[in-house]
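Example record

One chain of 266 residues, shown exactly as stored in the release files.
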Amino acid sequence: MAKKASEVEVGFIGFGNMAQAMARGLVDSGVLPGARIHACAAHFDKLQTTAAKLGANAHRDAGEVVEASDFVVLAVKPYLVEQVVAPVRDLLADKAVISVAAGRDFAFYEDVLASGSRHLSTIPNTPIAVGAGVIACERRHSLTTEQLETFESLFGQIALIEWVDGALLSTASSVAGCGPAFAAMFLEALGDAGVKHGLPRATAYRLAAQMMMGTAKLHLETGEHPGAMKDAVCSPGGTTIKGVAALEKDGFRGAVIDAIDAIQGA
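Predicted C-alpha cells for this chain:
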C-alpha cells in the first residue's frame, strides 16, 4: 500500500534553488513537515542555514540522506549526476529516485543506477515553491505502482504533474521550466508600462501579477482556448484590440516562439 504523503521521508542530494523550491512548497503547503526532509550539499555551513529555515535535516553526505529517505531527489547539475550517484549506487537501489536534472532521461539512469533501480526523470519549475508549480515527468519510468501513487499524492498537491514522452521532456522543460523567466519579464514590462502612465510600481506589479494568475487559472479550470479568451476581451474598436494589434506589429508571438526555438537549439 502506498504511504500517505505526510508519512514519506524525502531526501535531496543537492540543495540549490530548485531543491529548495520543492522543499519549501512541501513544507509551506502543509504537505510534509520539515522534519521529514533531508538534504546534503557541497557547502555544509550554508546548507545548515537554508535547511534550518524549513526545519529540515542537514546531512554531511549523500549516504546519510539516502538511508534516511524513501524518495531521493537528485538535484545536482546534470554533469555531476554520475559523480554523486557512484558512492551511493547500491543504497539507491532500494529507494524511489526522482531526477530533476535536465537532459537526464530514463535510458541515462538505466546505465548509471544499479540494475533494477526504481527511478523517474522529471523537470519541475520554481513556482512549486508556492504550491503552484509544474512537474513535467517522463512517461517511461520504473517506479512501483505504490511509489508512483505516493509520488503523485505528495507532489500533486503543489504542482501540476504532466506526463510526456521522453523525446518531449526537453520541450516541456522549455515551456514550463524556462517559462517563469519569460513570464517574469512580461510582468516587469507591464509594471513598467503602468509606472510610465502614473501607477505606483508596487500597484502596477500587483495588478499585473494578479491578472496573470487569474488568466492562467481561468484557462486551467475552463479549458477555454487562449484565442477565445483573448477575443472575449477585445470589443470591436475597443482599447484591448488596439493593444493586441501593437503586440502583433512588434512580433510578440514570434518572439516567444523564437525563445523556445533558441532553447531547443542550444
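Notes: The CA atoms of residues 142 and 188 lie 41 Å apart.
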